[in-house]
Amino acid sequence: MDPGPSHPTLLDITALSLRHGHDLRSLLEAATSAGTRATGAEYGAFFYSDRDEGGERLELFVLSGADARDFPTTLPVRSTPLFAPTFEGTSPIRVADVATDPRFGHGASGGLPPVHPPVRSYLAAPVLSGTGRVIGALLFAHSRPDRFDADAEAAAVAAAAGAAVTIDNALLVAEERAAREMAEDREAVADASATRFALLQQITALLSTSATRADITDAVPVTITHVLGCASAAVFLLDDSRDLLVGTSHPPLEEAAGVGVVPLRADTPPTVAVRNGQPVVFTAEDARRLFDGAVDPAALRSGLAVPMFGREGCVGALVAHWTDASPPSGSEVDLFASIAAQVALALERAQLLDAERAARESLALSVSALTDLARTLQRGLLPRSLPVLDRVAIAVRYQPAVVGAEVGGDWYDAVETDSGVVFVIGDVQGHNTTAAGLMGQLRTAVRAYLTEGHGPGAALERTNRLLADLGEELFATCCLVSLDQQSGEVVVASAGHPAPLVSDERGLWELEVDPGPPLGIAEGAEYPSTTHRLRGRSCVVLYTDGVVESPLDQLTAGEASLRRTIAEAPDASCEVLATQIMANIPHRLDDDAAMLVLEYGGATTVPEEAVLPLPSDVRAVAQARSFLRTVLGTWGAPHLADAGELVLSELVTNALLHTGGEATVVLRFERSEGRLNLGVRDGSTRHPRGRHADDDALGGRGLAIVEALAAEWGVSVGGEGKTVWADLVA
């Protein structure tokens, strides 16, 4: 049985390429590395299919992102249904989790050989030659499941196409070199003249530097006529779509009928040579018919047309004319056959290069357009500006995991509220436009809840319920830090997010908080808040896990580097510190990285504070008044007692009477400003409403009294309740 055509292996092509200074392996390494980055894989590999005495085997040729010692030396090509479609050239393969895919195997190893890196996500694309032959495949893998989407698959297919073009080019170069060597050998055997040997050298040099088909068809006739001294020379290229030969000659004869464009069915030397696939030696009469009066027939007394064969068949003909009536000798026919072979291979190579160049330009335009779109999208989702604060300077950084993408699910924000300013850092699962779209929704929701007056914990609870209502499959982590600029008090709440780091006079420490689950995991989750106080000048660093997490070392090295950078720059400004942290990330980003660094100038005053829980009994109003007088006496502010009792009585009465539950009195006194803040917390989110009271009415004047006596009053919502507060100023 006929085993079919024999194809050179990549090792054969590499040997030929290296012998002539063409490093195929380096080109394929670059293509594989680019594919690995574009797909987001941990590692990528180019395998090619070879034969040995036992049949076909899968040979590892290029590896990116992993150590070759972690792979088996050989693998069966079609040992599983998962590999077969790729190595038959049928289609790319994308598997979310090979450990659960029946085509690959089950169990902890997922059906992998004993020596193999861990694989959960799998992506493969066949590498096909220009003739459709399967050369091998590009395989990409990740140790986590569901890491490859449709965009990654498209990137893998594009990388496979680029690898195929690279291999085809290398094979053409190798064959072209072999043809040149054959031509030189034939010339030496035939004892060719120095002139003809010079022609071979010049043609070889010319073709090695000609980048396009136009360069070749313009330059080859000029070189042949100058070196051999023939009357003219021409290159005719076959146009299959129109059944024509299109010629370029020197001296230029394109205006002559039958020279510039010749129907393939015409009986002329070049068309006959192309149709029959054999050299044609012709006479003056043939020349006159060919040029049809465009030149003096006496000047063209003999000629030669040689077909040009490439790997896909005949591509045209090489033609030369002499004033000598003697027909070309056998050695001249062989010489032109060798030149024609070189020209044909050079034309095919130029065509591939033209296609590759056009593909690169198209890809560059697409990438540029996508990058511009991503930048516009990210600019629209992230805050255009951050608030200018009295006691705080802010620096932010954002860097995508995919170079050039500039879009992802990480975000930062700073929101001014009635009680201070809240700093936000968040991270939506994934780093693509889907994650970015959800990020924009969550950022808007968090900002809206904070602006309404909800505290950090309550804002996270409401955002979590919103995400559950949206029905999104993605989840997000988030951390909120509320800062009172005057007192330095911070309230922090977290939805599964890394705790912020603080650098102040006490050294480096965490804003510890009992974190709730990530947003979108549990619909009724609670997010408790923890209160801390900053002392003196402080830097607080909020960051996403992309800053510290790497594929090989999940957290340890990144966290150590982050802490070291902060600790070594205690006096650095927030901008300098943010730049140093991003520059000192010890790993290639596997996830988007966002960071917000706030530089706090220190508290201007530390208020006195006292708290009194009250039972759900209106008789507790007297207890609240007595507590107020005692505390004000301790604080040395008895002059605020009379007005304070009236206001506090109304606030407590409203809370106990209209909510039916317990209440808590919170007193805060800022001595430097002489400001007393009276707050009453209850378990209802309903806001108090003023009522119109007639002159003889016994009630309904509570809020009117509060408004008359207080410098300011308002309502702050937090958790499942609210705080109604009023400020008195001496």
Quick rundown:
With about 725 residues, the protein is an alpha+beta fold. It folds into four domains: about 10-170, Beta-Lactamase, CATH 3.30.450; about 190-355, Beta-Lactamase, CATH 3.30.450; about 385-600, PPM-type phosphatase domain (Phosphatase 2c, domain 1, 4-Layer Sandwich), CATH 3.60.40.10; about 610-730, 2-Layer Sandwich (Heat Shock Protein 90). The chain is about 35% helix and about 25% strand.
Walk me through this protein's architecture.
The protein is α+β, with helices and mostly antiparallel strands. The chain folds into 4 domains: 161 residues, Beta-Lactamase, CATH 3.30.450; 164 residues, GAF domain (Beta-Lactamase, 2-Layer Sandwich); 218 residues, PPM-type phosphatase domain (Phosphatase 2c, domain 1); 122 residues, Heat Shock Protein 90, CATH 3.30.565.10. Strand 10 and strand 11 form a beta hairpin. The N terminus is likely disordered.
